[in-house]
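User: Need the bound-state model for magnesium ion:
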Amino acid sequence: MLEVRGLSKAFGSLQVVCDVATTVRGGECLGVMGPNGAGKSTFFDLLAGVTRADAGRVYVDGADVSALPPEARVKAGLARAFQVPKPFASLTVAEHLRLAADAGGGLQGHAALERAEEVMERTGLSCLSMTTGSSLRLLDRKRLELAKALATGPKVLLLDEISGGLTEPEVQALVEMIQGLKRPGLAILWIEHIAHALQATCDRILMLHLGTKVIEDRPDVVAADPLVRELYLGTASHA
Ligand SMILES: Nc1ncnc2c1ncn2[C@@H]1O[C@H](COP(=O)(O)OP(=O)(O)O)[C@@H](O)[C@H]1O
Ligand SMILES: [Mg+2]
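Assistant: Bound-state model below.
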């Protein structure tokens, strides 16, 4: 569903993403780990088209989106949920999702309504459909952020540290929701610092260090890797 070849980006003399390649199939979830500054968010920026790559190609369901601007990549099936959700204060949950279904998913009228309903069900927001953005607690703002991405009808879903700021039980609720999103037509990529959340959800984990992929393998293999333990688990134990 997503194929990435030789993706690279430098800011001045700083090589932030260096020749990264991966393939994520429909139904799979790929975790992306790495210390702060490893290039994880820039990797997502390159996939989303927010930052222009120096080299490399991105394919969504076989279509080359490398030359497309961000909005066109959303229409091609690439959706992204941001770390800090910023809902519109006076719009309801349902209105947010109808907008996303329209602007990103190209659905109008009844079709947009149906998409909004379906997505609220998948993200546990049905009972909050008439609640406005300003009245949502953090976990529900995160749910809405995810739901907006889903409302565009994505083939590839990019999640960047969406569990930040949540309590442990809330992280657990979010993990269960993401596990429930896995389906054949959707590839999920998830950047997260919380190792156990990725271990529980992902089929594979890709580890970035200084912009370079150091390993991509099953969660148990990655967790047992000596370099990963030094780079990541060492960092985590001081956090
Ligand atoms: N627009 C930019 N201009 C210059 N340097 C940047 C820019 N964006 C990110 N960087 C640098 O790129 C490196 C990787 O950043 P980032 O992708 O945010 O890492 P991560 O998400 O893994 O913490 C950092 O050293 C950061 O300072
Ligand atoms: Mg980041």
